[in-house]
Design goal:
The protein is of the alpha/beta class. The protein folds into 3 domains: 90 residues, Rossmann fold; 190 residues, Mur-like, catalytic domain (UDP-N-acetylmuramoyl-L-alanine:D-glutamate ligase, 3-Layer(aba) Sandwich), CATH 3.40.1190; 140 residues, Alpha-Beta Complex (Protein-Tyrosine Phosphatase, Chain A). The protein is 33% helix and 21% strand. The strands form 4 sheets. It has a 6-stranded parallel β-sheet with strand order 7-8-6-9-10-11, sandwiched between helices. A 6-stranded mixed β-sheet has the order 15-16-20-17-18-19, sandwiched between helices. Strands 3-2-1-4-5 form a 5-stranded parallel β-sheet, with helices on both faces. Helix 5 packs across helix 10 and helix 12 crosses helix 13. The longest helix is centred in the middle third of the chain and has 16 residues. The protein starts with 10 loop residues before the first strand and ends with a helix.
């Protein structure tokens, strides 16, 4: 379904957050339709400029769905809601509308979309940065950058989009080129479990056609398993026959392209993801060496192994985006010298055994401080796995005390790194990972 297909129809927009308001404004300003219905799960005020529209909330959302000819759901509205299951044939999303619009009405624009449990934001940002430096007009949007609805009226050489599992789950169109960074265990109420989460994320490439293709990290077992049914279009990275990361360097068929020390990025896991990004650059027939040179000027995104401050030999790293144990393990392996970890957040039914094993095997780690809801769960895993006497386990009660303790400990040990890597979502304690990361930064600044 394209935007033009909505002309004159009764359109319900379900979810009145940022994306919902953006699409309402677009439909009004472009005179697509004036027959608009508002739906929201909870009671809320009508958006400014739409006071004449009917609003259905709570137990009345089904009435709004029944009245509409087309339902545009926002990403936060699960496809597994009974009302959306019932009216599936008339449900679409802003992502689906925009990708269809660009793919079929802007034939000179190639759509590249990246997804994964972790690392997709840095990957799409790095790819867009390099393509721009190579002289192309690039639109960056989706789950990062500008909303896709803002990009469909402009002409680009490339649209680079970050796609979440929420956005991918019911797409009817796929990107020309897709890429997946990884696939970790996530139990989400939105998806009704991990199996649906994996299938919903992989659905991003389910409608590829012609010469379309997608790239997969060959070292991630879950990615390989869940993409097997699409293997005819699947291409692999992190393999020695292509681009791969090894010993803090990126290689192309054995030839060194760059080293982590050349970049402003931290984290060896970024090199794994860059192996996929450079696979796309190469797929497009572009100059890999020129792209690698350009990447040296790429600034890391906030809250992703972000260097906050260096005080008295102690480096503070904000990795608030870390919402899974696997992300924390990657972060730990990115630093040399003494480490103190601060972890904890909202429980998402994750297993911390491997995280605890990482701590047990890494003698750089001098202490782990646990916080928030998952604090006791992480601490239990650490007690079961870590038998070394040279690592302290502290069950903390505030981020302020945790940072102060970590700072004091590392100063006594000749310096090192305080790594704030929560391993868990932020909800219930912070609005999002950004607010959580900003809190960490503020605490560090007050030392």
């Amino acid at each position: 379904m394209k935007i033009s297909d909505l002309r004159g129809k009764i359109v319900a927009v379900w979810g009145l957050g940022t994306e919902g308001r953006d699409v309402l404004k677009y439909l009004r300003d472009h005179a697509v339709t004036n027959k608009l219905v508002l739906i929201n799960d909870t009671d809320c005020a009508k958006p400014e400029g739409f006071s004449s529209c009917e609003l259905y909330t709570g137990n009345d959302v089904a009435k709004g769905c029944e009245k509409a000819e087309v339902i545009i759901r926002s990403p936060g509205v699960s496809i597994y809601k009974p009302e959306l299951v019932k009216y599936r044939e008339k449900v679409t999303t802003v992502t689906d509308l925009c990708l269809n619009e660009i793919r079929y009405n802007h034939p000179n624009c190639k759509i590249i979309a990246i997804s994964g449990s972790k690392g997709k934001s840095t990957s799409v940002s790095a790819l867009a940065f390099m393509l721009s430096r190579l002289g192309f007009k690039v639109g960056l949007g989706g789950n990062i950058g500008r909303p896709l609805i803002e990009l469909i009226d402009e002409d680009y050489d490339f649209l680079v989009a970050e796609i979440s599992s929420y956005q991918a789950s019911d797409l009817t169109v796929s990107p020309h080129i897709g890429m997946f960074t990884n696939l970790f265990y996530v139990h989400s109420e939105w998806h009704n479990g991990h199996e649906n989460y994996c299938r919903d994320k992989i659905h991003m490439i389910a409608n590829q056609q012609g010469n379309d293709c997608f790239w997969v990290n060959a070292q991630n077992e879950q990615l390989m398993r869940y993409t097997e049914e699409f293997a005819q279009r699947r291409r692999l990275y992190d393999v020695e026959s292509g681009f791969y990361a090894k010993d803090r360097c990126l290689y192309d068929k054995g030839q060194k392209i760059l080293s982590l020390s050349d970049l402003r990025l931290s984290g060896t896991h970024n090199l794994d993801n860059l192996a996929g990004v450079f696979s796309i650059i190469d797929e497009l027939g572009l100059d890999v060496k020129a792209a690698a040179e350009a990447l040296k000027d790429f600034e890391p995104l906030p809250h992703r192994l972000q260097k906050v401050a260096l005080k008295n030999g102690v480096l503070f790293i904000n990795d608030s985006i870390s919402t899974a144990p696997e992300a924390a393990i990657g972060a730990v392996n990115s630093f040399d010298g003494n480490l103190v970890l601060i972890s904890g957040g909202q429980d998402n039914q994750q297993d911390y055994t491997e995280y605890a094993q990482c701590v047990a095997e890494n003698h750089k780690i001098k202490a782990v401080i646990t916080l928030y809801q998952t604090g006791p769960k992480i601490a239990k895993a650490l007690r079961n796995q870590v038998k070394r006497e040279d690592v302290a386990l502290i069950e903390g009660d505030s981020l302020e005390k945790a940072v102060a303790f970590a700072y004091e400990l590392l100063q006594k040990n000749g310096g090192g790194t305080v790594l704030f890597t929560p391993t868990s979502p932020s909800f219930g304690f912070y609005k999002n990972f950004i607010e959580r990361g900003n809190h960490f930064i503020k605490v560090v600044e007050t030392l």
